[in-house]
Amino acid sequence: METKMKKLLFLTSTIVLSTLIAGSVQAAEKPSVELGEKLFNNPVLGGTGNTKSCNSCHPGGKGLEDAGSNPKLAVIINRCITGPLGGKALKDNSIEMQSVTLYIKSLKDKK
Fold this sequence. Notes:
Helix content: 40-55%
Structural class: mainly alpha
Largest sheet: none
CATH architecture: Orthogonal Bundle
Number of helices: 5
Order of helices and strands: HHHHH
Shape: elongated
Oligomer: single chain
CATH topology: Cytochrome Bc1 Complex, Chain D, domain 2
């Protein structure tokens, strides 16, 4: 019984978080570093169904300081989302992808 309840609670939380993120992304008129950081730290990026986020493997963006100069950054981001995070790839021109890309590019300044 506890397992079913935990699964139901997790599913409900995921749906609520997804709705909140979708609302915040829709409210954003343009991509931003701030939104990118929120998405980087959010486990529902790409519709993932687990508790991992980009930050799980790259705490505080550590190790990604030079990634922003990679011309294939969007491909790499989607590889992480569809692989370890188990989500769906983001469209290259989406506010989400542009924001995460901006956030990762901003990490260069934190070296």
